[in-house]
Design a protein that fits this description.
Elements (H helix, E strand, L loop, with lengths): L6 H4 L2 H8 L13 H4 L7 E4 L4 E3 L3 E9 L6 E7 L2 E6 L1 H6 L3 E3 L2 E9 L3 E10 L10 E6 L9 E7 L13 H16 L6 E7 L5 H11 L8 E12 L6 E3 L10 H4 L3 H8 L6 E10 L8 H12 L2 E8 H6 L6 H10 L9 E3 H20 L5 E4 L7 E4 L1
Parallel strand pairs: 2-9, 10-11, 10-12, 12-14, 14-15
Antiparallel strand pairs: 1-3, 3-7, 4-5, 4-8, 6-7, 8-9, 12-13, 15-17, 16-18
Helix pairs in contact: 5-11, 6-8, 8-9, 11-12
């Protein structure tokens, strides 16, 4: 098996940094050697049954086959240009199967296909998170867009946590101003701009799932989806995952049981069928929750859920102090969106935002707090789509 199949278990750049610094990382490897991982069987073998072809329609049915090779089957994902656009766990896949042939399940998924030529992929994991092969086909959609795309912005922000020791100052106001900014810069580019907001006690895993389920059917293949998240987020030293701390997660809780990591996030947003998506993450690390390398974990997070990310990670004190009544990352984000010199041919894209924030955030944080706060980015697939215009 190719080593990339084990990326959930072994892709840990944070451990390389620990080893270089002379730390003993042997304890992190306990129980995750390859022989142990494969002791119950191999990861699933998958196949796309639909051939590459052209269409002139908004969507297409994609047939796949998933064969259990002994390790079980879970996390079935369809991709368009590397972005997860349809996700189902094993239970949902079994309910929706078309046919069962011995250890193989035949499924069919209807995917919204944007205009143009796109790479359609499919994959799954076994029960331990080891990836299957990931076959691809090419589909060209010749159907012309009948309207400009819509923008859908969902903000998840928490000022007032159930545990008062986690309270923050600026997330809710930042979300409000970000929504207003998108309403302004979005008019030249988008047909409609839809904004949805959950804040404070509304930001629980159950409420987020319900809101996304409500939004997902409204989002077209050519639309743009932006998810803005602001609150506490940390890296779990043990598994290397990034965890967002929802409203009802106490400061001393076991985050692996109460917080939202990549596995839970992909269940929540994995059925947003818009390849043109980006996650904006203004995260603050709580001092009393054990935290590892936030940069590595956020990039790992983006890779494993298949979404582009622009993020800033600040200390609790810096988040409280803020900059001009904003979280400093969101301040630089809003600044970028208002800079006309960043608009190429009257449009601004995700790479334009990244370039400005990576240049401006370290400088601004050094002046304000006495140390640099680096921007974190992970780009997945084609990120050249416009998120605003003049």
């Amino acid at each position: 098996l190719d080593v990339s199949r084990f990326r959930k278990q072994f892709y840990r750049p944070d451990l390389i940094a620990k080893a270089i610094n002379g730390e003993d990382i042997g304890s992190y490897a306990e129980g995750i050697d390859i022989d142990t991982l494969l002791s119950s069987g191999l990861p699933p073998r998958v196949e796309i049954l639909t051939n590459s072809h052209s269409i002139n329609a908004e969507s297409e049915d994609i047939g796949v086959k998933v064969c259990d090779e002994g390790g079980g089957v879970d996390n079935l994902s369809f991709y368009i240009d590397g972005k997860t656009v349809a996700y189902m766990n094993n239970t949902k896949a079994y309910r929706h199967r078309k046919k069962q042939i011995d250890n193989c399940t035949i499924l069919e998924q209807n995917l919204l296909i944007p205009s143009g030529t796109h790479i359609i992929g499919f994959g799954a994991t076994d029960k331990k998170g080891i990836y299957s092969n990931t076959p691809t086909i090419t589909i060209t959609n010749t159907k012309k867009m009948e309207r400009k795309p819509n923008l859908h912005l969902l903000t998840l922000t928490i000022n007032d946590y159930q545990d008062d020791s986690l309270d923050l100052t600026f997330p809710n106001n930042d979300a409000k101003e970000l929504s207003q900014k998108f309403q302004t810069i979005g008019k030249p580019v988008f047909e409609h701009i839809y904004t949805y907001a959950l804040k404070d006690s509304q930001v629980t895993q159950k409420s987020i799932q319900a809101k996304v389920a409500q939004i997902a059917p409204k989002i077209g293949a050519n639309d743009v989806f932006v998810l803005y998240v602001s609150g506490h987020g940390i890296t779990n030293n043990r598994d290397g995952d990034y965890y967002f701390i929802p409203y009802d997660c106490p400061n001393d809780a076991d985050i692996t049981k109460r917080a939202i990591n990549q596995d839970k996030f992909i269940e929540i947003i994995g059925n947003i069928q818009a390849p043109n998506s980006v996650l904006l993450l203004d995260t603050c690390e709580s001092g009393s929750m054990a935290s590892g390398d936030i940069t590595s974990s956020i990039k790992r997070f983006g890779r494993n859920i298949g979404i582009s990310i622009i993020a800033g990670a600040s200390s609790k004190q810096n988040a409280i102090d803020g900059y001009k009544k904003h979280g400093i990352f969101t301040y630089t984000l809003l600044d970028a969106m208002g800079r006309k010199d960043l608009y190429y041919e009257n449009e601004i894209t995700v790479p334009d935002l990244i370039k400005h924030i990576k240049r401006y955030l370290p400088k601004l944080s050094k002046e304000k707090f006495g140390h640099k706060q680096e921007a974190i980015s992970y780009q997945n697939g084609d990120t050249s789509f416009a998120i605003g215009g003049l």
